[in-house]
């Protein structure tokens, strides 16, 4: 773990999220995972800091990334994401099940707008704002950054906020490619690959692949 990761995992800014993590650790493990050591801390990003692509999700799922300690890992939402990264030759494996699986990303890094698992997957505005300094720091450290892929509207808004850009000038839309005023990297939007979006057909594998085709260009 590098210094940035240590800074992330020791964050105690959001009382509600710390209490929730403690409660999950004590009483809230999901059936089938009772014997697992839940992570229950802020989840650090995954992937090389010199990558050209940064993918920003919403927040760790309680029983996915909040359990395994790696973004989108052991999480339904990660299935399509990691499969697609593999299909585009950006990783060495198509699945991300746990933190000790030797999965490696190539030229891509995955992060979250909020790094602690929130109750009902819903962080408050204050929690998103509290976490925004980590995103700013991360973007500054990514010297080769060419694109940020925002997964969902909340991630899109969190990225714009780091650059103090107006939401009204860059509305979220699936597949959109935003050139940001005065900024070298582009912001690309996708619907979040959540269970809800996939089950309702708002997003499907083909639509997600199309976004990666845009990124590839
Ligand atoms: N897991 C994450 O790490 N982030 C998400 O947005 C969803 C699941």
Automatic annotation (TrEMBL):
SMART domains: UDG, UreE_C
Signal sequence extent: none
Any Pfam family matching the protein: UDG
A GO molecular-function descriptor: DNA-deoxyinosine glycosylase activity
UniProt superkingdom: Archaea
Alphabetic keyword roster: 4Fe-4S, DNA damage, DNA repair, Hydrolase, Iron, Iron-sulfur, Metal-binding
Protein name: Type-5 uracil-DNA glycosylase
Family to which this protein belongs: Belongs to the uracil-DNA glycosylase (UDG) superfamily. Type 5 (UDGb) family.
GO BP, sorted A to Z: base-excision repair
Record organism: Marine Group III euryarchaeote CG-Bathy1
Every Uracil-DNA glycosylase-like domain range: 44-212
């Amino acid at each position: 773990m590098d210094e940035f990761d240590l800074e992330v995992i020791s964050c105690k800014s959001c009382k509600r999220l710390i209490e929730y993590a403690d409660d999950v650790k004590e009483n809230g493990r999901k059936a089938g995972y009772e014997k697992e050591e839940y992570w229950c801390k802020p989840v650090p990003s995954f992937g090389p800091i010199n990558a050209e692509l940064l993918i920003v999700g919403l927040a760790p799922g309680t029983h996915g990334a909040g359990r395994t300690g790696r973004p989108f890992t052991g999480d339904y939402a990660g299935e399509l994401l990691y499969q697609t990264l593999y299909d585009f030759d950006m990783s060495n494996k198509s699945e991300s099940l746990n933190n000790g699986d030797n999965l490696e990303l190539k030229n891509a890094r995955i992060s979250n707008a909020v790094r602690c698992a929130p109750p009902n997957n819903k962080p408050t505005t204050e929690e998103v704002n509290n976490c925004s300094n980590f995103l700013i720091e991360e973007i500054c450290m990514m010297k080769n950054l060419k694109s940020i892929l925002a997964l969902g509207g909340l991630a899109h808004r969190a990225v714009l906020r780091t650059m103090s850009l107006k939401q009204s000038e860059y509305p979220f839309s699936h597949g959109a490619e935003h050139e940001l005023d005065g900024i070298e990297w582009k912001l690309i939007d996708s619907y979040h690959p959540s269970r809800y979006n996939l089950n309702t057909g708002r997003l499907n594998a083909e639509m997600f692949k199309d976004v990666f085709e845009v990124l590839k260009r």
